[in-house]
Amino acid sequence: MAKYLISFPSAAMVVPNGELEAVGRDAHAVIEEAKAAGVYIFGGGIDESVPPVLISANGSVAKGGYPWAPRLDGGFTVLDLPSREEAVAWAARIAKACRCDQELRVFGFDPQS
Predict the structure, then answer these.
(1) pTM, full prediction
(2) Where are the domains of the chain?
(3) Residue 92: φ, ψ to 5°
(4) Which InterPro entries does the UniProt entry name for this protein (predicted)?
(5) pLDDT per residue over 77-87, tens digit each?
């Protein structure tokens, strides 16, 4: 089994007027199915109302994240699945529910964490 990160940036989620409630309902239904199947690890979204800070190795704190990196926002789900094919199938279900494309990556899980 491998852990897969399924995610999307905030800008990708463009919900037509009047569909936000249905998107929420559909997305939560897929997550409940993942939980029932025993493959759900965790998920959520970046709280974009709280700006990031960058903590250096010496402990100093600076406003903002890495200036050279793309902004990190949006939502994500981590699932524990037996194959990439199954991960693609779950990502497709999430994409359909959220009405936006999803990126799929293998999540480098550290079993000692």
Answers:
(1) 0.88
(2) 2-107
(3) -65, -40
(4) Dimeric_a/b-barrel
(5) 999 999 999 99
